[in-house]
């Protein structure tokens, strides 16, 4: 029996409250409830894998003596940010949102999901061969390599945000392949070669500060030169060049999800020249997105499976998130039921049996902060029938996005908006003119970014989103 069933049995009172327009109810938090399991693997050969408990915190409203009860309460499921490779439930911005909604009569769930450094099991991917050169690819995510610190590094958690010296690798056809270049002083092409941990020509230096996903140079240790693009779009290849901190082609973002791209070189990322682009195979950066969306959809099914115990209306479930969590949430509101679930069989992944497969993972509303539609693109590109996921079955979306966001460009929101305009499904885009990425304090003191980043909270966006969410959930709201 999962811990969630035991915890639900211990609730003193599980009852549904009228949703209120202002803070009305006190909130009890039940932490670390297991909502299912997923496989985590020692490396990206996905051979040695073990079951991993997926956990969430439930924010449950407590009735007052004179509280009016309603037949059933709505629910909202929250997904933290961090590029699918960092972060965890309990970020201040989501604790604030969970309390905001729960104090008004929702039951809120703040979830953990598997991160890319845990090597969550994925469907087989289209992987490059040894000797592949690295070329610029459109930053649509379909053909971008997931390039990360080698798993034999000394760090225990694999978080790409830490300072790091060592090989950078991606999953190849026959095992890990490392970025490799000669140690000479002339610019040299970088290729993917089998990893040799002691090889000097595979040692790269990446310097990060805290949880930054800002642009940085990546230095090749043996030559002292920097990773750079050479040539003209679309025929750019990756080489080593003399380090120049002002050269935009040497300013890289090794994002938490491991997709290597330049912020100042158009929408391009690092891809393998020989990567197979087949609708029958998965693209390499599926390594971070697939486990994250799979787990979010499992959390939604958990909410439905436990709806009676929580006093939830299983037909009134919203999702919300920030950055990668918003991208996962957008995917949950758009993709088909079998997406991010049925690509692996129970034989491939026995932990699927713990994820309430008899329930559905549809949502009735999506509330996002600076999201990307990339994970919708991925599943569409890898569908043998190329079925379009956009359409009238999509859940309504309210999106907040900074006009100066260079991490997830606001063009992503405009493209999603265009798809929704075609179908006529409600899409409310709230542009923050002077804000960049992660503008969690927007609306409070004319700030964008909180001093303590995701640890901060401002209720402004929740206040704006609340009427949209309740309307599209079909929830009546009392003063």
Provide keyphrases for this structure.
single chain; alpha/beta; five-stranded antiparallel beta sheet; disordered N terminus
Short description:
This protein has helices at 3-9, 92-102, 286-305, 307-310, 324-334, 374-381, 411-423, 460-473, and strands spanning 19-20, 26-41, 49-62, 73-79, 107-111, 134-138, 148-149, 164-166, 168-172, 175-180, 191-194, 204-206, 218-220, 225-230, 237-241, 252-254, 260-262, 268-272, 312-322, 365-369, 397-402, 427-432, 477-478. By secondary structure, the chain is of the alpha/beta class.
Describe the structure.
The chain has eight helices and 23 strands. The strands form six sheets. The chain has an eight-stranded mixed β-sheet with strand order 2-3-5-4-19-20-21-22, with helices on both faces. A five-stranded antiparallel β-sheet has the order 8-12-13-14-15, with no helix packed on it. Strand 19 (312-322), helix 5 (324-334) and strand 20 form a beta-alpha-beta unit. It starts with a helix and ends with a strand. Helix 3 crosses helix 5 (324-334). The protein is α/β, with parallel strands linked by helices.
Question: What's the overall average pLDDT, rounded?
Answer: 80
Low-confidence runs: 1-14, 155-160, 274-284
Secondary structure class reads: alpha/beta
Counting DSSP H or I runs of 4 or more residues, the number of helices is: 8
Number of strands: 23
Q: Could you tell me the strand content as a percent range?
A: 25-35%
Helix content: 10-25%
Radius of gyration from the alpha-carbon trace, in angstroms: 22 Å
Spatial gap, N to C terminus: 40 Å
